[in-house]
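Tutorial, part two.
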Amino acid sequence: MAAAERQVFLDRDPEPEEITAQFRRLLALARERGSAIAIGHPYPETLEVLATEIPRATELGYELVPVSYLLQRPGELPE
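Running the prediction step on this input gives:
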């Protein structure tokens, strides 16, 4: 059975500054490891931070994929 473990919990602290810090931690881990998994809640603060941070991450070359992609192709990231 395929399994994955999250590395970052985005909104344990629901303050926007903390969510932003956790998202940036996610990017740093992904850069170091090749991929990283985050989870979070659909809180308004979380969605607002993601609306800002995801486009920035994309501009920096990060690609967000569903966890299922990582489970189906371990060690193989999309181009």
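Residues 15 and 61 are 26 Å apart (CA to CA). In part three we will examine how such features are distributed along the chain.
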